[in-house]
Amino acid sequence: MTKLILKEFPDTLETERLLLRCPLPGDGILVYEAMKETREELLPWMAWALEEPDCEQVEINVRKAHIHFLERRDLRFHLFIKENGAFVGSSGLHRLDWKVPCAEIGYWCRKRYMGQGLISEAVRGLRDFGVKQLGMKRLAIHCDRENGASRRVAERAGFTLEGILRQHERATNGELRDTAIYADVVL
């Protein structure tokens, strides 16, 4: 773990329309407002949407994410429109395994920016970053089989459906759910 902290790579990435940067102290209010705006849309898919967000707790979460980024344990990025600086959502490389190396890409989008292709763009940017900058050999996306929007993001970003894990996890409503596994593998 100690040597991972010394691993050098940028904390900011750019795509055509987006600026992706690591979470910074003070971002909590932006994330909080986006979570409140989008909670109902994310409730079926995201466990954190079960509870009403609390601004102070969100800021604490952002600061922990900043520390995890510096430690190279989890690489969360906050997404901003380059043109006007508006906060779009969050994505990142999670469940990192530096021995392989591989990671899982997760994402969520603020309600007002859904359906504009911004998350697919961010995922493609993270895939390129993961492969070219970090030497990742496998990047995966896990999502609920019934989450059509999330599955379309994976497909538009060029990930291949590897399979469906049946009754893999509990959904936010407590029912068992199937998980779709998409991946991009560097051979």
UniProtKB/TrEMBL annotation:
<dbReference type="InterPro" id="IPR000182">
    <property type="entry name" value="GNAT_dom"/>
</dbReference>
<dbReference type="Pfam" id="PF13302">
    <property type="entry name" value="Acetyltransf_3"/>
</dbReference>
<feature type="domain" description="N-acetyltransferase">
    <location>
        <begin position="29"/>
        <end position="181"/>
    </location>
</feature>
<protein>
    <submittedName>
        <fullName>Protein N-acetyltransferase, RimJ/RimL family</fullName>
    </submittedName>
</protein>
<dbReference type="InterPro" id="IPR051908">
    <property type="entry name" value="Ribosomal_N-acetyltransferase"/>
</dbReference>
<dbReference type="GO" id="GO:0005737">
    <property type="term" value="C:cytoplasm"/>
</dbReference>
<keyword id="KW-0808">Transferase</keyword>
<dbReference type="GO" id="GO:0008999">
    <property type="term" value="F:protein-N-terminal-alanine acetyltransferase activity"/>
</dbReference>
<dbReference type="GO" id="GO:1990189">
    <property type="term" value="F:protein N-terminal-serine acetyltransferase activity"/>
</dbReference>
<dbReference type="InterPro" id="IPR016181">
    <property type="entry name" value="Acyl_CoA_acyltransferase"/>
</dbReference>
